[in-house]
Amino acid sequence: MINEKNVRLGEVRSSIRELFEYGKKRKAEIGDDKVFDFSIGNPSVPAPAEVREAIVEILQTYDPVQLHGYTSAQGDYSVRQVLADYINSRFSTKLTADCLYLTCGAAASLTITLNALLNAGDEIITFAPFFPEYGVFTEHAGGKLIAVGVEEGTFRIDFDKLESAITAHTKGVIINSPNNPSGVVYPEKDIIRLAELLKKYSEKYGEPIYLISDEPYRELVFDKEVKVPYVMNYYPHSIVCYSYSKSLSLPGERIGYIAVNNEMPQFSKVYAGICGAGRALGFVCAPNLFQQLIKKVYNVTSDISVYKNNRDRLYAALVDYGFGVVKPDGAFYLFVKSMEESAAAFCERAKEYELLIVPGDDFGCNGYARVSYCVSPEMIERALPAFKKLSESYRNK
Amino acid sequence: MINEKNVRLGEVRSSIRELFEYGKKRKAEIGDDKVFDFSIGNPSVPAPAEVREAIVEILQTYDPVQLHGYTSAQGDYSVRQVLADYINSRFSTKLTADCLYLTCGAAASLTITLNALLNAGDEIITFAPFFPEYGVFTEHAGGKLIAVGVEEGTFRIDFDKLESAITAHTKGVIINSPNNPSGVVYPEKDIIRLAELLKKYSEKYGEPIYLISDEPYRELVFDKEVKVPYVMNYYPHSIVCYSYSKSLSLPGERIGYIAVNNEMPQFSKVYAGICGAGRALGFVCAPNLFQQLIKKVYNVTSDISVYKNNRDRLYAALVDYGFGVVKPDGAFYLFVKSMEESAAAFCERAKEYELLIVPGDDFGCNGYARVSYCVSPEMIERALPAFKKLSESYRNK
Q1: Across the interface, which of B108, B251, B289 has its CB nearest the CB of A70?
Q2: If you average pLDDT over residues B70-82, what whole number do you get?
Q3: Looking at this predicted complex, what is its ipTM?
């Protein structure tokens, strides 16, 4: 017998992926422009021109032995120094290069962090709806993911539910703000309250509860008044898992970082655990060409206005058609209330109108469907009548 | 308490890395050209010109959304198809695109394969001397690495020792040919005998014993008469872990693949296990730009003749100076017999002549030292008098 758990993980296709494959088949049958695929969270905006320019310049000016050679496991020191300085200038932290560990993207940031922190039986709390791989990553690291429901109607943290989920086994809490799939951004007062609660229970149980902030969507926030608080300013035992996948539209290139708050007393142990976990998982170093790229474009983002316009257009239309939906502050998802009890049935009915949207059940939250609006504005225009018909089909039943 | 095992892994610097850091310090003290650093296995030959040309062409002609987007977890289908065709043309296999799984390099190939195969308590056999991370990777996957000694004087498999190490817990055998650190290539007759033995014990215990061939050095073979047998031609339960780190001098870019032999009856389960393990470890997909690069330069290598010339010059000189050394067929390492019982003491004495070489103890093999000759030919010339003096220091004692 080989490892049955991993065999099952490899055999089960996610329903997002199933839907995407269905969409490809359906497009072949009735035409690309007749199918409205809102299933996948793949950036639709190209990487900014600076990315191509910087890569070409790097290729033409760097010594190839250095450029394509191993960096230290943590990443090239000079790259980490630039990122630490940038984070400090944005968030008034006092990070050094040695607080950063460059990774092969957000998933690697999370698996490395979880493997550094967890012992068998430890628990990680997160808030439903959540990115489903959190469960896979936590279990592989020997832990158990505890999903806690959020405030009805706002998708913000329900502190009573959170408090009753914390136990002596709680090793950490993962937040994801802006959130996939709800688009919610936690306001500062929620982060302050979260920090107070974690401090209280860390003291009660005599062991720190780590706050892991999964931030692939940090830069995708559309309104000036919305701020994404930086967790290190509120809580010493905090770790930021960052990725350039969405901000620079580089999801396939696998580049991101872990930043460990140097204000935590256990900093050296936690950072060493991250180095050890990266080694045990087989990461070696983040792709060097992309490390050097990030050193040059660390403060650039793709054209986020496309997502903002998509959000505004789609949100207004869906509300107009009678859908229940909380206006998302960021990321590129709308989480729409199902018009019948089963979100799976709702999404099946949407298919009759060639709309491909994902049941919230996959994100640990029944009764909703995720609409990914990282798509072309033209497709949104073409899809609006279909959304209207879907809504009408429930009113006329 | 966080995960102490990973903390320790992160805190312990490998002695190779220690030596490398010592070398940097020493160079600052006495000058770059006075220190002879043979410690690190980092390719010294630049990536071939085709690499830069292909990357620039890809950047200028591909749609950036596609180019930098996610591929399927297994890797872009068209890339896998090209690689399957190439492997089939070289080794007369009948692989399909779906036998390949693109990875972030050799370490990822190994950790994914081991996590796919191993259950807690399973054993993996390898042959000492071996790449020390095999132990780290196997343990993280829940298994135990059993290091079996090799034939004295040749570094080839000692089949009696191997046979006595196989138990009902043996899940697989890792071979690494050309070998780091001995440079030995296993001849065909050894692979045939190995396959027979594994078949016999697979039948005895009623479970396949998998043969994992770790092949980062496959292309680094210097003599026409030396062939590296392709394990799939000899044994159905075989898995090849390949990397472009050394063949294309891209170690920092993390690109390689796993090829699963489709002649094994459990093929679908093993491949699914690999997909599941890749997911659980957080790999998502191999860097897409480098996937597309490999599609264009799959049959190109760096200028291997530099390593051949280094080997010839250094081997001849060391033999002349009285060192005991088996002529390496491939890779870029010489494994030199220590001139005193403790290889650590031998390497310490080498430092007195500014020679940085690594004790074989790190590779599970006492009494030897590794000399990495992926260095400039000029440094070898400058270093030869130091090697001569090191040898003389033992004769004159």
Answers
A1: B251
A2: 95
A3: 0.96
